[in-house]
């Protein structure tokens, strides 16, 4: 029996988030520069996105570039940004063919002008698509997002647009960059690392975590199926007991 047929389509996670890790180490194993790993990771993005859409997943969020990644060597940052522009322009047609909408979260205005322009063009060109939403986390960090939300709410209080007593989970979530997007139910991290790395800290409060030793450039459809099958075998209690769920 193939893996895909083992997935219960009635119990799919609505939103899957992925920390795409291991490009550099994979490239090193092959005696190549880190950029070689990033370029090969594009195929994994394409396969994972198409597989998720085919199954009926509603949202897929990929951690593409964190605020901490600016600390990498400048040549690697430049190569990543160039690759991002190339990929966005090449993949827009594929996204439209698959009826996939592109969105992005993060401090986007601080991206290089060419990268920001290509991103906005891709978002606009796919805005009418309805099958699945692909969210790229770019220049993103969860701490930045949470602090930004706090500042936004504080400003509204200063402007008499909001009262302190009105702040609750709903108003706070509306100030996050993910407002309107359901929380991830499944978080996947590749490469064998078992950290969250400042990714969607508020949103993954009740997500199931799945760690795989596979480096991102080797991640394929069957690996996504494995993660979803594992997710579907877990009991999700949300603070309740097993007996209460029965």
Could you walk me through the main structural features you see in this protein, from its secondary elements to its overall organization?
The protein has one domain: Undecaprenyl pyrophosphate synthetase, CATH 3.40.1180. The model has no long low-confidence stretch (mean pLDDT 95). It has eight helices and six strands; from the N terminus they run βααβαβαβααββαα. The chain has helices at residues 23-29, 34-55, 74-97, 113-125, 142-158, 169-174, 221-232, 242-245; strands at 15-19, 59-66, 100-105, 132-140, 186-189, 208-211. It has a six-stranded parallel beta sheet, sandwiched between helices. The protein is α/β, with parallel strands linked by helices and 246 residues long. The relative contact order is 0.19.
What is the topology?
Blueprint: E1 15-19, H1 23-29, H2 34-55, E2 59-66, H3 74-97, E3 100-105, H4 113-125, E4 132-140, H5 142-158, H6 169-174, E5 186-189, E6 208-211, H7 221-232, H8 242-245
Parallel strand pairs: 1-2, 1-5, 2-4, 3-4, 5-6
Helix pairs in contact: 1-2, 2-3, 3-4
CATH architecture group name = 3-Layer(aba) Sandwich
Low-confidence stretches: none
Neighbour order of strands in the largest sheet: 3-4-2-1-5-6
Average pLDDT value?
Answer: 95
| Largest sheet, strands/sense/barrel | 6 strands, parallel
**Rg computed from alpha carbons, rounded to a whole number of angstroms:** 19 Å
Could you name the CATH class?
Alpha Beta
Would you identify the CATH H-level superfamily?
A: Decaprenyl diphosphate synthase-like
- Structural class assignment: alpha/beta
β-sheet strand percentage: 5-15%
Between the first and last Cα atoms, what is the distance in angstroms?
29 Å
The total count of strands amounts to 6
What is the 3D shape?
globular
The number of distinct structural domains comes to 1
């Amino acid at each position: 029996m193939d893996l895909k047929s083992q997935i219960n389509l009635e119990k799919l996670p609505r939103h899957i988030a992925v920390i795409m890790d291991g490009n550099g180490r994979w490239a090193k194993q092959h005696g190549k520069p880190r950029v070689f790993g990033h370029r090969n990771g594009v195929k994994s993005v394409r396969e994972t996105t198409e597989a998720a859409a085919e199954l009926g997943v509603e949202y897929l969020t990929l951690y593409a570039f964190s605020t901490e990644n600016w600390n990498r060597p400048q040549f690697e940052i430049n190569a990543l940004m160039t690759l991002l522009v190339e990929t966005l322009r090449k993949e827009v047609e594929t996204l439209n063919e698959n009826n996939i909408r592109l969105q992005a979260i993060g401090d986007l205005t601080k991206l290089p002008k060419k990268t920001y322009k290509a991103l906005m063009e891709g978002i606009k060109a796919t805005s009418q698509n309805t099958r699945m939403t692909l969210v790229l986390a770019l220049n993103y960090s969860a701490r930045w997002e949470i602090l930004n939300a706090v500042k936004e709410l504080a400003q509204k209080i200063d402007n008499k647009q909001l009262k302190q007593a009105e702040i609750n989970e709903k108003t706070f979530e509306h100030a996050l960059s993910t407002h309107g997007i359901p929380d991830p139910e499944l978080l996947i991290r590749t490469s064998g690392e078992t950290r969250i790395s400042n990714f969607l800290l508020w949103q993954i409060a009740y997500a199931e975590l799945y760690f795989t030793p596979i480096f991102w450039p080797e991640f394929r459809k069957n690996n996504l199926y494995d993660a979803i099958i594992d997710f579907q075998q877990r009991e999700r209690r949300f603070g309740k007991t097993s007996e209460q769920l029965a």
